[in-house]
Design a protein that fits this description.
Alpha-Beta Plaits, cell division, 70% helix, membrane, FtsX_actino, 8% strand, alpha+beta, 4 strands, four-stranded antiparallel sheet
Protein backbone atom coordinates (compact mmCIF):
# COMPACT_ATOMS: atom_id res chain seq x y z
CA UNK A 1 0.00 0.00 0.00
CA UNK A 2 1.54 3.29 -1.12
CA UNK A 3 1.47 5.80 1.73
CA UNK A 4 1.68 8.83 -0.56
CA UNK A 5 -1.35 7.75 -2.56
CA UNK A 6 -3.36 7.06 0.59
CA UNK A 7 -2.51 10.46 2.07
CA UNK A 8 -3.39 12.12 -1.24
CA UNK A 9 -6.82 10.47 -1.13
CA UNK A 10 -7.27 11.61 2.47
CA UNK A 11 -6.45 15.21 1.55
CA UNK A 12 -8.89 15.16 -1.37
CA UNK A 13 -11.64 13.75 0.81
CA UNK A 14 -11.13 16.40 3.48
CA UNK A 15 -11.25 19.19 0.92
CA UNK A 16 -14.34 17.86 -0.84
CA UNK A 17 -16.31 17.50 2.40
CA UNK A 18 -14.94 20.49 4.28
CA UNK A 19 -18.26 21.56 5.78
CA UNK A 20 -18.97 18.05 7.08
CA UNK A 21 -15.42 17.81 8.42
CA UNK A 22 -15.91 21.05 10.32
CA UNK A 23 -19.15 19.62 11.74
CA UNK A 24 -17.33 16.48 12.89
CA UNK A 25 -14.61 18.61 14.49
CA UNK A 26 -17.15 20.75 16.37
CA UNK A 27 -19.30 17.85 17.55
CA UNK A 28 -16.23 15.88 18.66
CA UNK A 29 -14.85 18.95 20.40
CA UNK A 30 -18.05 19.64 22.33
CA UNK A 31 -18.76 16.01 23.25
CA UNK A 32 -15.21 15.26 24.40
CA UNK A 33 -15.08 18.53 26.34
CA UNK A 34 -18.10 17.27 28.28
CA UNK A 35 -16.36 13.93 28.76
CA UNK A 36 -13.21 15.65 30.02
CA UNK A 37 -15.23 17.91 32.33
CA UNK A 38 -17.01 14.87 33.77
CA UNK A 39 -13.66 13.14 34.36
CA UNK A 40 -12.24 16.24 36.07
CA UNK A 41 -15.38 16.61 38.17
CA UNK A 42 -15.10 13.01 39.33
CA UNK A 43 -11.43 13.57 40.19
CA UNK A 44 -12.46 16.71 42.10
CA UNK A 45 -15.13 14.81 44.03
CA UNK A 46 -12.65 12.10 44.97
CA UNK A 47 -10.05 14.67 46.04
CA UNK A 48 -12.57 16.67 48.05
CA UNK A 49 -13.85 13.56 49.78
CA UNK A 50 -10.34 12.58 50.75
CA UNK A 51 -9.57 16.13 51.89
CA UNK A 52 -12.75 16.97 53.82
CA UNK A 53 -13.74 13.56 55.17
CA UNK A 54 -10.31 13.18 56.76
CA UNK A 55 -10.81 16.59 58.39
CA UNK A 56 -14.43 16.11 59.38
CA UNK A 57 -15.04 16.57 63.07
CA UNK A 58 -17.72 15.43 65.47
CA UNK A 59 -19.42 18.24 67.37
CA UNK A 60 -20.71 17.59 70.89
CA UNK A 61 -23.15 20.46 71.35
CA UNK A 62 -23.98 21.43 74.94
CA UNK A 63 -27.20 22.86 76.29
CA UNK A 64 -28.14 26.53 76.23
CA UNK A 65 -31.00 28.23 78.01
CA UNK A 66 -33.01 28.02 74.78
CA UNK A 67 -32.43 24.31 74.09
CA UNK A 68 -35.24 21.81 74.64
CA UNK A 69 -33.90 18.65 72.98
CA UNK A 70 -31.51 15.97 74.21
CA UNK A 71 -30.69 16.33 77.89
CA UNK A 72 -31.69 20.00 77.92
CA UNK A 73 -34.65 21.61 79.65
CA UNK A 74 -34.03 25.24 78.74
CA UNK A 75 -31.09 25.28 81.10
CA UNK A 76 -27.52 25.98 80.05
CA UNK A 77 -24.94 23.29 80.71
CA UNK A 78 -23.31 23.82 84.08
CA UNK A 79 -19.53 23.81 84.61
CA UNK A 80 -19.91 20.44 86.33
CA UNK A 81 -21.73 18.96 83.35
CA UNK A 82 -19.11 20.35 80.97
CA UNK A 83 -16.38 18.81 83.14
CA UNK A 84 -18.21 15.48 83.08
CA UNK A 85 -18.31 15.46 79.27
CA UNK A 86 -14.59 16.31 79.13
CA UNK A 87 -13.82 13.54 81.62
CA UNK A 88 -15.62 11.08 79.37
CA UNK A 89 -13.60 12.24 76.36
CA UNK A 90 -10.40 11.62 78.31
CA UNK A 91 -11.57 8.31 79.77
CA UNK A 92 -9.90 5.01 78.97
CA UNK A 93 -13.00 4.03 77.00
CA UNK A 94 -12.98 6.91 74.50
CA UNK A 95 -9.38 8.13 74.53
CA UNK A 96 -8.11 5.41 72.11
CA UNK A 97 -10.63 6.57 69.49
CA UNK A 98 -9.90 10.30 69.81
CA UNK A 99 -7.03 12.05 68.10
CA UNK A 100 -7.59 15.56 69.49
CA UNK A 101 -10.42 17.70 70.81
CA UNK A 102 -11.01 21.25 71.95
CA UNK A 103 -13.73 23.20 73.70
CA UNK A 104 -15.46 26.14 71.99
CA UNK A 105 -17.30 28.68 74.14
CA UNK A 106 -20.38 30.58 73.03
CA UNK A 107 -18.29 33.70 72.45
CA UNK A 108 -15.81 31.77 70.29
CA UNK A 109 -18.66 30.14 68.36
CA UNK A 110 -20.14 33.60 67.76
CA UNK A 111 -16.83 34.98 66.53
CA UNK A 112 -16.41 32.04 64.12
CA UNK A 113 -19.99 32.47 62.93
CA UNK A 114 -19.42 36.15 62.21
CA UNK A 115 -16.27 35.34 60.23
CA UNK A 116 -18.03 32.66 58.21
CA UNK A 117 -21.21 34.62 57.45
CA UNK A 118 -19.83 38.15 57.36
CA UNK A 119 -21.98 40.51 55.33
CA UNK A 120 -25.11 38.33 55.46
CA UNK A 121 -28.42 38.87 57.24
CA UNK A 122 -27.75 35.85 59.47
CA UNK A 123 -24.66 37.54 60.94
CA UNK A 124 -26.83 40.43 62.15
CA UNK A 125 -29.59 38.28 63.61
CA UNK A 126 -27.51 35.86 65.68
CA UNK A 127 -26.16 36.71 69.13
CA UNK A 128 -23.77 34.62 71.30
CA UNK A 129 -26.46 33.22 73.60
CA UNK A 130 -28.15 31.46 70.68
CA UNK A 131 -25.04 29.47 69.78
CA UNK A 132 -24.25 26.42 71.92
CA UNK A 133 -20.83 25.75 73.39
CA UNK A 134 -19.34 22.57 72.00
CA UNK A 135 -16.53 20.07 72.12
CA UNK A 136 -15.02 19.57 68.65
CA UNK A 137 -13.55 16.09 68.34
CA UNK A 138 -11.13 14.71 65.74
CA UNK A 139 -11.41 10.93 65.65
CA UNK A 140 -8.60 8.54 64.81
CA UNK A 141 -11.06 6.79 62.47
CA UNK A 142 -13.71 9.16 61.10
CA UNK A 143 -16.09 6.23 60.59
CA UNK A 144 -16.40 5.63 64.34
CA UNK A 145 -18.49 8.65 65.28
CA UNK A 146 -21.25 6.39 66.60
CA UNK A 147 -19.00 5.55 69.56
CA UNK A 148 -19.25 9.16 70.75
CA UNK A 149 -23.02 9.14 70.27
CA UNK A 150 -23.37 6.01 72.39
CA UNK A 151 -21.00 7.24 75.11
CA UNK A 152 -22.06 10.88 75.41
CA UNK A 153 -25.61 11.00 74.06
CA UNK A 154 -27.28 10.36 77.41
CA UNK A 155 -25.18 12.70 79.53
CA UNK A 156 -26.83 15.66 81.23
CA UNK A 157 -25.98 18.96 79.55
CA UNK A 158 -25.49 17.40 76.10
CA UNK A 159 -27.91 18.74 73.49
CA UNK A 160 -26.80 16.73 70.44
CA UNK A 161 -23.85 15.05 68.78
CA UNK A 162 -23.40 15.69 65.06
CA UNK A 163 -20.96 14.29 62.56
CA UNK A 164 -19.91 16.97 60.03
CA UNK A 165 -19.81 14.34 57.31
CA UNK A 166 -23.61 14.31 57.33
CA UNK A 167 -23.52 17.83 55.88
CA UNK A 168 -20.85 16.88 53.37
CA UNK A 169 -22.87 13.95 52.03
CA UNK A 170 -25.47 16.31 50.59
CA UNK A 171 -22.80 18.39 48.87
CA UNK A 172 -21.16 15.33 47.35
CA UNK A 173 -24.53 13.92 46.27
CA UNK A 174 -25.12 17.16 44.36
CA UNK A 175 -21.65 17.00 42.79
CA UNK A 176 -22.19 13.36 41.81
CA UNK A 177 -25.50 14.29 40.20
CA UNK A 178 -23.72 17.02 38.24
CA UNK A 179 -21.08 14.52 37.14
CA UNK A 180 -23.73 12.03 36.00
CA UNK A 181 -25.54 14.80 34.10
CA UNK A 182 -22.29 15.78 32.35
CA UNK A 183 -21.68 12.13 31.44
CA UNK A 184 -25.22 11.81 30.07
CA UNK A 185 -24.85 14.91 27.91
CA UNK A 186 -21.44 13.71 26.76
CA UNK A 187 -22.89 10.30 25.83
CA UNK A 188 -25.59 11.94 23.70
CA UNK A 189 -23.02 14.14 22.02
CA UNK A 190 -20.78 11.14 21.35
CA UNK A 191 -23.68 9.33 19.69
CA UNK A 192 -24.21 12.40 17.53
CA UNK A 193 -20.49 12.43 16.70
CA UNK A 194 -20.55 8.75 15.72
CA UNK A 195 -23.56 9.25 13.44
CA UNK A 196 -22.05 12.36 11.90
CA UNK A 197 -18.70 10.67 11.25
CA UNK A 198 -20.45 7.69 9.66
CA UNK A 199 -22.60 9.98 7.51
CA UNK A 200 -19.59 12.02 6.44
CA UNK A 201 -17.67 8.90 5.41
CA UNK A 202 -20.60 7.52 3.45
CA UNK A 203 -21.13 10.83 1.64
CA UNK A 204 -17.44 11.03 0.85
CA UNK A 205 -17.52 7.50 -0.53
CA UNK A 206 -20.64 8.27 -2.56
CA UNK A 207 -19.04 11.37 -4.11
CA UNK A 208 -16.12 9.19 -5.23
CA UNK A 209 -18.14 6.16 -6.29
CA UNK A 210 -16.72 6.26 -9.86
CA UNK A 211 -13.17 6.24 -8.51
CA UNK A 212 -14.01 3.40 -6.16
CA UNK A 213 -15.48 1.41 -9.06
CA UNK A 214 -12.30 1.86 -11.09
CA UNK A 215 -10.17 0.86 -8.08
CA UNK A 216 -12.20 -2.32 -7.74
CA UNK A 217 -11.82 -3.10 -11.42
CA UNK A 218 -8.03 -2.83 -11.25
CA UNK A 219 -7.95 -5.18 -8.26
CA UNK A 220 -7.55 -2.77 -5.30
CA UNK A 221 -8.18 -4.51 -1.99
CA UNK A 222 -10.93 -3.43 0.39
CA UNK A 223 -8.28 -2.45 2.89
CA UNK A 224 -6.67 -0.08 0.38
CA UNK A 225 -10.06 1.45 -0.42
CA UNK A 226 -11.16 1.74 3.22
CA UNK A 227 -8.00 3.23 4.71
CA UNK A 228 -8.29 6.80 3.28
CA UNK A 229 -11.89 7.09 4.48
CA UNK A 230 -11.02 5.86 7.96
CA UNK A 231 -8.11 8.30 8.13
CA UNK A 232 -10.41 11.15 7.11
CA UNK A 233 -12.64 10.46 10.09
CA UNK A 234 -9.66 10.01 12.42
CA UNK A 235 -8.05 13.29 11.31
CA UNK A 236 -11.26 15.26 11.85
CA UNK A 237 -11.88 13.62 15.23
CA UNK A 238 -8.28 14.17 16.34
CA UNK A 239 -8.60 17.89 15.62
CA UNK A 240 -11.77 18.00 17.73
CA UNK A 241 -10.12 15.91 20.46
CA UNK A 242 -7.08 18.20 20.53
CA UNK A 243 -9.35 21.23 20.86
CA UNK A 244 -11.20 19.50 23.70
CA UNK A 245 -7.89 18.78 25.46
CA UNK A 246 -6.85 22.42 25.10
CA UNK A 247 -10.25 23.53 26.44
CA UNK A 248 -9.92 21.27 29.49
CA UNK A 249 -6.41 22.58 30.24
CA UNK A 250 -7.63 26.17 29.79
CA UNK A 251 -10.60 25.57 32.13
CA UNK A 252 -8.31 24.21 34.84
CA UNK A 253 -5.67 26.91 34.37
CA UNK A 254 -7.88 29.98 34.19
CA UNK A 255 -11.11 28.97 35.97
CA UNK A 256 -10.23 26.32 38.55
CA UNK A 257 -6.72 27.45 39.47
CA UNK A 258 -7.53 31.10 38.81
CA UNK A 259 -11.02 32.01 39.98
CA UNK A 260 -11.97 29.03 42.16
CA UNK A 261 -8.66 28.91 44.02
CA UNK A 262 -9.24 32.49 45.16
CA UNK A 263 -12.94 31.96 45.87
CA UNK A 264 -12.38 28.67 47.77
CA UNK A 265 -8.97 29.02 49.40
CA UNK A 266 -9.58 26.20 51.90
CA UNK A 267 -10.61 23.63 49.28
CA UNK A 268 -8.26 21.23 47.53
CA UNK A 269 -8.88 21.60 43.78
CA UNK A 270 -7.75 19.69 40.70
CA UNK A 271 -4.75 21.15 38.90
CA UNK A 272 -2.81 20.95 35.66
CA UNK A 273 -1.49 17.48 36.54
CA UNK A 274 -5.03 16.08 36.38
CA UNK A 275 -5.82 18.07 33.21
CA UNK A 276 -2.70 16.73 31.52
CA UNK A 277 -3.84 13.21 32.37
CA UNK A 278 -7.29 13.80 30.86
CA UNK A 279 -6.10 15.40 27.59
CA UNK A 280 -4.34 12.28 26.17
CA UNK A 281 -7.37 10.16 27.12
CA UNK A 282 -9.55 12.46 25.02
CA UNK A 283 -7.18 12.15 22.06
CA UNK A 284 -7.23 8.36 22.22
CA UNK A 285 -11.01 8.29 22.72
CA UNK A 286 -11.56 10.58 19.73
CA UNK A 287 -9.30 8.56 17.46
CA UNK A 288 -10.89 5.24 18.44
CA UNK A 289 -14.39 6.67 18.13
CA UNK A 290 -13.69 7.93 14.62
CA UNK A 291 -11.81 4.82 13.49
CA UNK A 292 -14.54 2.41 14.59
CA UNK A 293 -17.47 4.46 13.24
CA UNK A 294 -15.70 5.22 9.94
CA UNK A 295 -14.69 1.58 9.49
CA UNK A 296 -18.26 0.38 10.06
CA UNK A 297 -19.66 3.03 7.69
CA UNK A 298 -17.29 2.37 4.78
CA UNK A 299 -17.49 -1.41 5.21
CA UNK A 300 -21.28 -1.29 4.93
CA UNK A 301 -21.00 1.00 1.94
CA UNK A 302 -18.64 -1.33 0.10
CA UNK A 303 -21.04 -4.21 0.66
CA UNK A 304 -23.83 -2.35 -1.15
Amino acid sequence: MRLGLVLSEVGQGLRRNLSMVVSVVLVTFISLTFVGAAMLLQMQITEMKSYWFDRAQVAVYLCTEFATIGGCEQQAATPEQIAQVEAQLESATLAPFIDTYYFETQEEAYANFQDQFAGTAAAELVSPEFLPPAFWVDLVDVDQSQILVDALGGLAGVESIEDERAYLDGVFDMLNASSITAVGIAALMLVAAVLLIATTIRLSAFSRRRELGIMRLVGASNRFIQTPFILEGVVAALIGSALAGVAIIAIVEFFVQGYLTEALPLTSLVGLDEALLVAPVLLVAGALLAAVSANVAITRYLRV
